[in-house]
Amino acid sequence: MIKKLMICLLIIILLTSSLTFAQNIDNNTVTRAEFSKIIVELIGLAGNMLPPRDPANLLWWQSQFDDVPDDHWASRYIDELFFVMAIRGNGEGIFRPDDAILIEEAITILVRVLGSNGGLFAHRQSGYPFGYIYVAEFSGLTDGLGFGIGEYATKGLLQKLVNRALDTPLIDRRWIYPPGELYFFLADGLDGRFLSTLRMEAWNNLPVYFDGTDWILLEDDYEID
Question: CA 164 to CA 26: how far, in whole Å?
Answer without folding.
Answer: 24
